[in-house]
Amino acid sequence: MTMLSVENLSVDFRVDTGWIRSVDGVSFELPENATLGIVGESGSGKSVTALSILRLHAMRNTRLTGRIGFDGKDLLKMPERELRRLRGRDIAMIFQDPMHSLNPVLTIGDQIGETLRIHQGMTGAQATARAVELLDMVRIPDAKSRVTDFPHQLSGGMRQRVMIAMAIACRPRLLIADEPTTALDVTVQAQILELLRDLREEIGMSVILISHDLGLVAEFAERVIVMYAGELVEDAPARTIFETPTHPYSEGLLQAIPSPDADVTRLYAIPGRIPDPGRRPPGCNFAPRCGLVQPSCLKGTPPLEPATPGHLVRCPVRLHAKVEA
Amino acid sequence: MTDASALVAGPPQTAEIPPPVSRWRVLARRLWRHRSFRIGGGIVLVIVLLALAAPLLTDGSPNQMALRNRFAPPSAEHWFGADNFGRDIFTRVLYGARISLWIGFASALIAAVGGALVGMVSAWFRRLDALMMRIMDALLAFPAILLAIGINAALGPQVSSVIIALGSAYIPRMARIVRASALVIRELDYVDAARVSGAGSGRIIFRHILPNVMAPLLVSVTFVFAYAILAEAALSFLGIGPPPPHPSWGNIIAEGRDYSVEAWWIMLFPGLAISLAALGTNLLGDGLRDVLDPKLKIEQ
């Protein structure tokens, strides 16, 4: 059953010279109890897409078009008051930088308990007791004494665990994790990912994992969408993306992961930079950086076409070459 | 017992680590080490204690006239001398401390509460910002004293109207300071995190923003306190402060103005008291600023 369906979502931001399109016509679906990865480099619009689901942008300078259905209701048209009831209860989110995501003047117990007090009307004592359980769930040792700690007394990994505890306090049905491990040590990254995987099974929630690391996402998610310059360029099951990436950009991302086996002296990088959202190239956004570029690529935005059922790719050159072969 | 067995059988390691020192004790220790905070705090404390102990140190009647003591110079009997009605200046200055400190405290409180509300609301509800800040700009365009004179004239000569006048005259400065800090804080991730938790505006403003703007707020409160004491003296001197015979410091000076050459002590001692109180609170505020808000120190 489809829980979340994003249809043709576009996000524009106001700048001095007018409006700039940051996300352009993105569509995807997420069923109950599933995992989705969103991959792309900085500026590809993956975080903007995620923030739109909870409508966290400064609304004065943002224009959202399209539809984001959650349980059949359009989140983009929902009154703020109603949306606030969903935030934290049904949809939760964790951020990239655990160093700045916790309020320095409140204890972690206070902050974990906040969601419970808002949505479940718990008293302070009840919320603290539940916060201890939640700290146990995210495997913070000695939870009972930790609950009165302030954020500055915790390490980065611990803080991200606290953030996760805050997010799962009300057993949400959808958890959006926006680069949850980027700011952490590699060893801690693996632990946090492991924790997210376990919690997902325990609670039975869906998770959207946003990352620039295709390897990490492919390992965690069942389905992966790849974004480039605000557009969705490939949408496929994780295994397919990992084994047979079809869009040249996905291929490049995968190649950019250094292999431990090969004796490489020089790391692979996709040449060029992501285009400025105000000055996107004509035709395919990726054309200036693409090794397969054809004259036809520069004419019009290529359509998102199925390569196989359930595998969408925005690259006619690749798709039609495949057909011919 | 070997090291290995100690490791296995010993109590958990955490039990041996001393509990971390609380934030407040760290803060208190740092304040105590700060010299100007110590001096300023000492001066303010002495003034407050003297004000509280006024009935014990004097005969308790600041308005008691004794015509045979008219213009008595400072002596063992009248430490600070006596005024044109033979009232003891020492007694009046001590009782004046009560009024002046109360006016300073209460108007700083009004300015802090009002400024915090206006500042946080403008920073959080961006649509209101332009309107509220233009109102504040308009208020700032008047010198605080002039504004206070106007408000005071409208409300009539009472201690409470002096407090309201001075308090509201200082709201715009406080609002700007709070707004500036709140604008920084509203963009931080933990405010987004609170929104993700489903927190409404009220909860975010009072639970997440207010505690984090307390440091600059508290620092400027001490300065407003000092300004208010000075402004009260100025208002009294102009004849629109607390009505006589209230022995506020400004009033004593105003009443001694006509005799400044022959009976200099009438103006000198309340004047010294004002300077001392202003000096003390400023030093105290400097210390608070250095400890609570180290960034400001570098900028100045």
What does this structure look like?
The complex is a heterodimer of chains A (325) and B (300). Chain A is of the alpha/beta class. Chain A has one domain (2-90, 172-324): 3-Layer(aba) Sandwich (Rossmann fold). Chain A has helices at 46-53, 80-86, 108-120, 124-137, 143-146, 156-168, 186-203, 214-220, 238-243, 248-255, 316-324; strands at residues 2-15, 18-31, 35-39, 62-70, 73-74, 91-94, 174-178, 206-211, 223-228, 231-237, 305-308, 311-313. The mean pLDDT of chain A is 88. Chain B is an all-alpha fold. The longest helix of chain B has 37 residues, at 201-237. Chain B has 13 helices and no strands. The N and C termini of chain B lie far apart (60 Å). In chain B, 73% of the residues lie in helices and 0% in strands. In chain B, 42% of the residues are buried. Chain A binds chain B through residues 54, 56, 58, 60, 84-89, 92-93, 95, 97, 100-106, 114-115, 118-119, 142, 145, 150, 153, 163, 166-167, and chain B through 14, 20, 23, 126-127, 188-190, 192-200, 203, 207-208, 211-212.
Question: Topology, please?
Answer:
The complex is a heterodimer of chains A (325) and B (300).
Chain A: E1 2-15, E2 18-31, E3 35-39, H1 46-53, E4 62-70, E5 73-74, H2 80-86, E6 91-94, H3 108-120, H4 124-137, H5 143-146, H6 156-168, E7 174-178, H7 186-203, E8 206-211, H8 214-220, E9 223-228, E10 231-237, H9 238-243, H10 248-255, E11 305-308, E12 311-313, H11 316-324
Parallel strand pairs in A: 3-8, 3-9, 6-7, 7-8
Antiparallel strand pairs in A: 1-2, 1-4, 4-5, 9-10, 10-12, 11-12
Helix pairs in contact in A: 3-4, 3-6, 4-6, 6-7
Chain B: H1 3-9, H2 23-33, H3 35-52, H4 54-57, H5 89-124, H6 126-141, H7 144-155, H8 159-186, H9 189-196, H10 201-237, H11 249-256, H12 265-292, H13 294-299
Helix pairs in contact in B: 3-5, 3-12, 5-6, 5-8, 5-10, 5-12, 6-8, 7-8, 8-10, 10-11, 10-12, 11-12
